[in-house]
Amino acid sequence: FLSVLPGETVTFDIDFENTGTGDDHIDISREGDYPADWTVSIASQLAILHEQTVTKKLTVSIDEDTSPGEYHIELTGISSDDPKIPPFERDVTITINVEQMYNLTASIGTDTTSIDPFPQTASRKVTFKFSVNNTGTGADKFKFTAAFDATPVRKTGWSVAFSPATIDLGVNEEDMIDATVQVPYKENIDTYGISIKVESEGDTSVF
User: pTM (2 decimals)?
Assistant: First the structure.
């Protein structure tokens, strides 16, 4: 049992032991429930002496778009020198757990806007729209936070509200989010910056 991420290549040492009474040749076949776009390679045949153990490499390249889950590779060694029908054979099953890869892209249509400073009788609101696309390999949930630039100094009362506050997206799904910024009453005329972070709840290092 081995856990891997999509896009990785892993190698296993497979031992073949001749427990018969003479030299032999072994045909190696493989099957399983792994995706067709994986690359699985191992020698198709080997010669093995009496009481000898031969190690062969099984190399598995996991496609980068593989869905998370448990997959199996079954190797069968069949004696090609055994005259019996069916000939002697042994199976071994390799279990590979593919973990979910978390990723996203986010983009905003217009990142700058201007508001009329007059009349300053009440706070004002301006809304920005941005999109989030789940580019990971499984479903994910995303949340949003905002941070105000340290300069220029601003009055108290600024806030950012997101609608929706969180979103659930399947693989390659995309959605639009509104970020509504409230500007306080009698704020000084200037240019103010706000950073918006989109965060995966499955992996907080992805944003």
Answer: 0.77
